[in-house]
Amino acid sequence: MTPDSKSGAPRGPSDRVVPVSLGDRSYDIVIGAGLLSIAGALMTPHLPIPKVFIVTDETVAALHLSTLTESLSEAGVAHTVITVAPGESTKSFATLETVLDALLEGGLERKSTVVALGGGVVGDLAGFAAAIAQRGVRFIQIPTTLLSQVDSSVGGKTAVNAKAGKNLIGAFHQPSLVLADTDVLDSLPRRELLAGYAEVVKYGALGDASFFEWLERNGPALLDGDASLRAEAVARSCEAKARIVARDERESGVRALLNLGHTFGHALESRCEYDGRLLHGEGVAIGMAMAFDLSVRLGLCAGQDGERLKAHLRAVGLPVSPSDIPDTDFSAEDLIRRMGSDKKVSAGKLTFILAKGLGRAFITQDVDPENLRASVSAALAA
Ligand code: GLY
Questions:
Q1: Residue 11 has pLDDT above 60, yes or no
Q2: Is the CB of 151 under 6 A from ligand 1?
Q3: Quick check: helix, strand or coil at residue 301?
Q4: The domain 190-381 is classified under which CATH number: 3.90.550.10, 3.40.190.10, 1.20.1090.10, 3.90.79.10?
Q5: Does residue 266 contact residue 283 with C-beta atoms inside 8 Å?
Q6: Ligand 1: which atom is nearest the Cα of residue 244?
Q7: pLDDT score of 14 more than 70
């Protein structure tokens, strides 16, 4: 067990614990195989009263809910289940209201705990409900996708989407515990696994060249199902995210590095109308390639680093160019306009995460519009 870890419950011998150090809001991310079946025992030390409200979606419920509820029953924890429809449209005000009503009608008390069992949509929605119900109750994340295990379940960002854009209504509300069961990744469709893998590559590309090299060597086997490589990749990603979140919980500085690829990616996602043509992680993969291309154009980064990033993304089967997205035409003007409606705009200026090389990302608002237009046009022509 890590010295400053807060989880007191029993765990398997191969489990990893990554602490997120945030003073009295510190918590552990426990990573390992088979955690869902002992989740009740792992959660018990974090529950002020033995009563939880599980928020999940229909797809995840069919696969994993009974394992979780059995472990809760074994641990003597009462549970109420709230099931929502799968998909991005669930991250709405309307569903939030339904979840809040179900929590309150189900007897939620200040000492109850909300458990998010699912991917990023469920985690963000349930986390936001927990942040505002009774002015804030505890919550525990049990992420069931690679993307949510390495990114969205960690760091306390919770939100629903607004008409004006994604994630525009939300709160920072840290979980009390994150349980990342790497066995559940076996049930993910390959495309979704790959989309999550783009966020894993992001940690190497933004701050850790040796992790990027490790992914070049191990990424294919990890994606093909090697359980210990998966656990290692999840743990190293969570360690990277935990380090950044501990320094800048509310994104007033360094946390913005985690948005590498996201300004371009969100513009592409918005153009694709979230209709399944482009998954978030796929947008991040293309966005990272575009951020490195822009960095190379600005003379900040060696061309070979951008090529190496794209070669690895391509090798595992991720898209690297807008032309890899089926049935969609893009124009540079439209994408740049969409980038301007991203929430990373400050005082009217777009914030970019660019790179001086693999593992050397930095934050800037200083990008000449002509270079941006030329870089986006070149990416569209690729
Ligand atoms: N997904 C980026 C962040 O948590 O800051």
A1: no
A2: yes
A3: coil
A4: 1.20.1090.10
A5: yes
A6: 5
A7: no
